[in-house]
Amino acid sequence: MLEYQAAKDLLKNKTILVTGAGDGIGKAAAIAYAKHGATVILLGKTVKKLEAVYDLIEQAGYPTPAIVPLDLKGATEQNYKDMAETIEEQFGKLDGLLHNASLLGVLGPFEHITMSTVNDVLQVNLIAEIMLTKAMLPIMRKSESASLLFTSSSVGRQGRAYWGEYAISKFATEGMMQSLAHEYEDTVIRVNSINPGATRTGMRANAYPAENPQTLKAPEDIMATYLYLMGDDSKDVNGQQLNAQ
Ligand code: NDP
């Protein structure tokens, strides 16, 4: 998939919401989507990071993005409903949603798991995803062709020792993806998941502190699959688990 070449105007006239758009893979995806013509809604926790991405997109001359500062850990169902209303007022519809924001939690023996970390990881990686998806589906139905994209991991497809709550959250995400893909198969909304693979970000460095980051692909290097799944070239792809590398 790394060799897929997205047309310059692949995402023209599309509005796409990216979570965790201030850093790492989400930042690269937001910029790649804007570069291919989309109006991107940048959702994230740290406003400064979102503003920096906003500026990069503006300076490059891509469509003006929007910023939604939101901490997925504390957000309520009402916050997501209000967000959907605002998006509908401003854009009329939503054509794409990339669930990208995640917490790694603490890696280690299962017997050392703490429930406060479990709660945080499941809140951000799963419960927030459920609430955001539920709120956005009605405005995604208004699109001619919408893509709902979840971010998984290799440990969301095959469990691994010491990956505790993070692996659990990614398996649940894959399950949600499959259920939604089945439920929405006769609609304009397709639902898939992507495993970015080892990528040079802060999260990866936390998980593998001894690794040389220069041996890894940068987020910008893995955007082909992110573009493919967001654009209409993947219109007939539904319920699939793709790898970006
Ligand atoms: P980063 O840690 O670099 O970025 C995560 C992003 O999520 C940040 O923008 C962060 O915002 C945001 N985020 C975290 N918590 C919250 C919150 N409570 N509310 C709002 N936003 C939040 O991670 P990556 O770019 O590496 O990961 C992106 C996705 O890819 C994740 O789903 C991850 O699980 C997955 N993945 C990554 C791999 C890798 O090798 N990098 C491998 C496999 C999967 P802020 O900076 O403001 O905290």
TrEMBL record:
<dbReference type="InterPro" id="IPR002347">
    <property type="entry name" value="SDR_fam"/>
</dbReference>
<protein>
    <submittedName>
        <fullName>YciK family oxidoreductase</fullName>
    </submittedName>
</protein>
<dbReference type="GO" id="GO:0016491">
    <property type="term" value="F:oxidoreductase activity"/>
</dbReference>
<comment type="similarity">
    <text>Belongs to the short-chain dehydrogenases/reductases (SDR) family.</text>
</comment>
<dbReference type="InterPro" id="IPR036291">
    <property type="entry name" value="NAD(P)-bd_dom_sf"/>
</dbReference>
<keyword id="KW-0560">Oxidoreductase</keyword>
<dbReference type="InterPro" id="IPR020904">
    <property type="entry name" value="Sc_DH/Rdtase_CS"/>
</dbReference>
<dbReference type="Pfam" id="PF00106">
    <property type="entry name" value="adh_short"/>
</dbReference>
